[in-house]
C-alpha cells in the first residue's frame, strides 16, 4: 500500500508540474502578439483592478444606498476609458493581488498608487507616472516630540503595506529598524494606534487624509532621496501591452498638461467628507448585510458540494481499485497539506489563465474542494465506526454492496459523525473569509472597506466578530437540535 501511495503522490506531482508548465507556456505565448488595445476596443470595456482601501487614491463611498469606488485613481481610470470610448469596469481585490491579476489576464490595468520599481517592471509594464505625492511617516500625535524626522526612527518598529515601495525603503534606509508588513493599510493604522508600531511608511496624500480625519495621528516627512523614475503612481499592465501603454500615456499626458490630478484630489476630498459625515455602524449596515449574504452563499454552496465530494472520495477510499484508492488518498493529502489561501489564489489566478472564472465562483470552488478533503476523512472515520456485523447482516439479506453502503452503512455513519460534520460546517463559515483576498465581497471584505471609509479601526472588526458569532451560535444550536433528534430516533 505504501508503494501505491508513493506512486500516486509522484504521479500527482508530475501532473501539477505539467499544469504549471502549461500555464507558463500560455503566459509566455500571450506576450507574442500585442492585442492589448484591440481587445479592450472590441470588448468595449476597460477592466481595472484596485484595492479600495487607500484614500485619497481609491476608496469606497456609500451614498444614497449605492456603493461606488471613488478617488483620484478612479478619475484617472475614467479619463483613460473615456479617451478610448469604452466603459470602465472596476474590480476590487487586495493590494498584493493586483499585479498577479494583471499577469494572469484578469484585468487590463491595475491602479492603486503603485510605484513602478525595477523589480515590478520585470513582471509587468508601466505607464508614465501620473502623480508623485511624496513619502511620509504616520506617527501617534503623542509621539510628535519623540519622532520629528526619519533619523529618530532608527531602531524602532516601522509598518508598511506588504509589497510596496514604502516597505522596501524602510528596510533599506532606516538602520536597525524592524519592519512589519501587512496587507491592509487599515490594519497598519490600527497597529500604529495600539502602539505595536512606532511609525507607518505611507504616501503623503494618504498620510494627510488620515491626519485630517483622525486627530490622534500626526505625520513627519520621510526625507528620502529617491529615483524619480521609481517614485510616484503609475498604471500597471501586462508585459508586452505596448499599444495599451501608449494609449494610457496619451491620457496621462493630457492629465499632466491640464494639471487634472489636483482637480481629482479635490473631488476625492469631497467624497471622503461623505464617508465621514456619519461613521456610525448603523449607517454602514448595508455593507455588513451584503457581506453576510455573500458569506452565507459561499458557506452553503461549499458545504453542499463539499459533502458530495467528501462522500465520493470516502467511497473511493474503500474501492477495490488501487488506482481509485490512490486518487482519493493523493487528493485528500494534497489539499489538506496546502493552505486554503493558496488554493483560492490558484483557482482564481492559476486556472484563470486557461478558463476565466469569476471571483465569486472561484471562491466557491476553492472552498468546496478544500472542504471535500476534510469531509472525506470525517466520513471515512464514520464508515469505519459502523460495526462489521451490520455489513454482515445486510449481506445475509442479499443486499448488494452498493445498497448495503447506501441503506445501512452511510445512514449509521452520518449519525456517528454528525458532531464532527457540524464542526466542519461551522469552521467553513469562518474560513470562507479568506476569499476576500480575490475581491469577493464577503463579511471580512466589507468590514475592511468600512474601516477604510470611516477611519475607525476597531469597531467594524467588532461588528463583524459579533455577526460571525451570531451565525455560528445559531448554526450550533440547530445542529445540536438535529443531533438530539437522531439520538432519540436511535
UniProtKB/TrEMBL annotation:
<keyword id="KW-0813">Transport</keyword>
<dbReference type="InterPro" id="IPR010065">
    <property type="entry name" value="AA_ABC_transptr_permease_3TM"/>
</dbReference>
<dbReference type="InterPro" id="IPR000515">
    <property type="entry name" value="MetI-like"/>
</dbReference>
<keyword id="KW-1133">Transmembrane helix</keyword>
<dbReference type="InterPro" id="IPR001638">
    <property type="entry name" value="Solute-binding_3/MltF_N"/>
</dbReference>
<dbReference type="GO" id="GO:0006865">
    <property type="term" value="P:amino acid transport"/>
</dbReference>
<keyword id="KW-0812">Transmembrane</keyword>
<feature type="transmembrane region" description="Helical">
    <location>
        <begin position="346"/>
        <end position="367"/>
    </location>
</feature>
<dbReference type="Pfam" id="PF00497">
    <property type="entry name" value="SBP_bac_3"/>
</dbReference>
<keyword id="KW-0472">Membrane</keyword>
<dbReference type="GO" id="GO:0022857">
    <property type="term" value="F:transmembrane transporter activity"/>
</dbReference>
<feature type="transmembrane region" description="Helical">
    <location>
        <begin position="294"/>
        <end position="316"/>
    </location>
</feature>
<protein>
    <submittedName>
        <fullName>ABC-type amino acid transport system, permease and periplasmic component</fullName>
    </submittedName>
</protein>
<feature type="transmembrane region" description="Helical">
    <location>
        <begin position="458"/>
        <end position="479"/>
    </location>
</feature>
<dbReference type="Pfam" id="PF00528">
    <property type="entry name" value="BPD_transp_1"/>
</dbReference>
<keyword id="KW-1003">Cell membrane</keyword>
<feature type="domain" description="ABC transmembrane type-1">
    <location>
        <begin position="292"/>
        <end position="479"/>
    </location>
</feature>
<keyword id="KW-0029">Amino-acid transport</keyword>
<dbReference type="InterPro" id="IPR035906">
    <property type="entry name" value="MetI-like_sf"/>
</dbReference>
<comment type="similarity">
    <text>Belongs to the binding-protein-dependent transport system permease family. HisMQ subfamily.</text>
</comment>
<dbReference type="InterPro" id="IPR043429">
    <property type="entry name" value="ArtM/GltK/GlnP/TcyL/YhdX-like"/>
</dbReference>
<dbReference type="GO" id="GO:0043190">
    <property type="term" value="C:ATP-binding cassette (ABC) transporter complex"/>
</dbReference>
Amino acid at each position: 500500500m505504501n508503494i501505491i501511495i508513493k506512486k500516486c503522490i509522484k504521479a500527482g506531482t508530475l501532473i501539477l508540474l505539467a499544469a504549471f508548465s502549461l500555464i507558463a507556456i500560455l503566459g509566455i505565448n500571450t506576450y507574442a502578439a500585442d492585442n492589448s488595445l484591440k481587445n479592450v476596443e472590441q470588448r468595449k470595456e476597460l477592466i481595472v483592478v484596485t484595492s479600495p482601501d487607500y484614500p485619497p487614491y481609491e476608496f469606497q463611498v456609500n451614498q444614497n444606498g449605492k456603493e461606488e469606488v471613488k478617488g483620484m485613481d478612479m478619475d484617472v481610470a475614467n479619463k483613460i476609458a473615456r479617451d478610448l470610448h469604452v466603459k470602465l469596469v472596476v474590480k476590487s481585490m487586495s493590494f498584493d493581488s493586483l499585479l498577479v491579476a494583471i499577469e494572469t489576464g484578469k484585468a487590463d490595468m491595475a491602479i492603486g498608487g503603485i510605484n513602478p520599481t525595477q523589480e515590478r517592471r520585470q513582471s509587468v509594464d508601466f505607464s508614465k507616472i501620473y502623480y508623485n505625492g511624496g513619502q511620509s511617516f504616520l506617527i501617534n500625535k503623542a509621539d510628535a516630540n519623540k519622532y520629528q524626522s526619519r533619523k529618530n526612527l532608527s531602531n524602532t518598529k516601522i509598518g508598511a503595506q506588504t509589497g510596496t515601495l514604502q516597505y522596501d525603503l524602510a528596510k533599506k534606509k532606516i538602520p536597525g529598524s524592524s519592519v512589519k508588513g501587512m496587507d491592509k493599510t487599515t490594519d497598519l493604522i490600527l497597529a500604529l494606534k495600539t502602539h505595536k508600531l512606532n511609525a507607518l511608511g505611507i504616501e503623503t496624500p494618504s498620510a494627510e487624509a488620515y491626519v485630517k480625519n483622525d486627530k490622534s495621528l500626526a505625520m513627519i516627512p520621510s526625507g528620502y532621496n529617491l529615483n524619480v523614475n521609481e517614485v510616484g503612481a503609475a498604471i500597471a499592465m501586462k508585459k508586452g501591452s505596448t499599444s495599451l501603454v501608449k494609449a494610457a500615456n496619451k491620457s496621462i499626458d493630457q492629465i499632466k498638461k491640464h494639471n487634472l490630478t489636483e482637480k481629482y484630489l479635490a473631488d476625492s476630498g469631497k467624497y471622503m467628507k461623505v464617508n465621514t459625515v456619519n461613521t456610525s455602524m448603523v449607517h454602514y449596515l448595508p455593507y455588513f448585510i451584503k457581506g453576510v449574504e455573500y458569506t452565507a452563499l459561499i458557506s452553503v454552496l461549499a458545504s453542499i458540494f463539499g459533502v458530495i465530494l467528501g462522500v465520493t472520495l470516502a467511497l473511493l477510499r474503500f474501492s477495490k481499485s488501487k488506482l481509485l484508492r490512490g486518487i482519493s488518498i493523493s487528493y485528500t493529502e494534497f489539499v489538506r497539506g496546502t493552505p486554503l489561501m493558496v488554493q483560492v489564489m490558484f483557482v482564481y489566478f492559476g486556472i484563470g489563465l486557461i478558463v476565466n472564472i469569476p471571483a465569486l465562483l472561484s471562491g466557491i470552488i476553492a472552498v468546496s474542494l478544500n472542504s471535500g478533503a476534510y469531509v472525506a476523512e470525517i466520513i471515512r472515520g464514520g464508515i469505519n465506526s459502523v460495526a462489521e456485523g451490520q455489513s454482515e447482516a445486510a449481506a445475509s439479506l442479499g443486499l448488494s454492496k452498493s445498497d448495503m453502503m447506501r441503506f445501512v452503512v452511510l445512514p449509521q455513519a452520518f449519525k456517528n459523525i454528525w458532531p464532527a460534520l457540524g464542526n466542519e460546517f461551522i469552521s467553513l463559515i469562518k474560513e470562507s473569509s479568506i476569499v476576500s483576498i480575490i475581491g469577493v465581497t464577503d463579511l471580512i471584505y466589507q468590514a475592511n472597506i468600512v474601516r477604510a471609509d470611516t477611519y475607525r479601526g476597531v469597531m467594524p472588526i467588532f461588528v463583524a466578530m459579533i455577526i460571525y458569532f451570531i451565525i455560528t451560535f445559531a448554526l450550533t444550536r440547530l445542529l445540536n437540535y438535529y443531533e438530539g433528534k437522531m439520538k432519540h430516533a436511535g
